[in-house]
Amino acid sequence: MVWRYKNRWFRRWLVLIVFWAVPVMIVAANEIREQLAYDSADLSHTLSTWTFTDAQRALPAIQRCHGSVDEARTAGCPQDVLASKTALDQQANAQYATRKHVLFGYLWTAFVGYWVVPAITLFVLGAIIGVIRRSLRHPLKKTDAKTAHDPAHKPAGIAKQ
Length: 161
Fold this sequence. Notes:
Elements: H1 2-5, H2 8-48, H3 54-57, H4 69-75, H5 79-137, H6 142-148
Helix pairs in contact: 2-5
């Protein structure tokens, strides 16, 4: 079996990369958790905050405008205030979706930079070192050098057809 004794570097590389994935995933999970918690708190604050103009503050029905848009509608909040609040809520939801998209794009870039690139780099370095070690262990013989460049030469084990 080829993998039993040869290419120990490949097994070591696999073990290293799997163990290196653990801290990368821990950092990514913490970043996702913290950023999504901040963004959702910001969204809920924006959705529950009402901003009024001076003319709207003068209205007596403005006291009924609180909570979500549906709650304010059932409480009797004026339609112009509800329309402006609905537009602000839509902007806040769009901004939340954009933040989420940017967060996952950033995390994908970080994953590639902190896990994929080191994995490929270590694999290439291990392969180069393995090829160099193998070539130093089994140097090319003079007879092999002559026959390697001779296209008419057939190895001893192959019969003519």
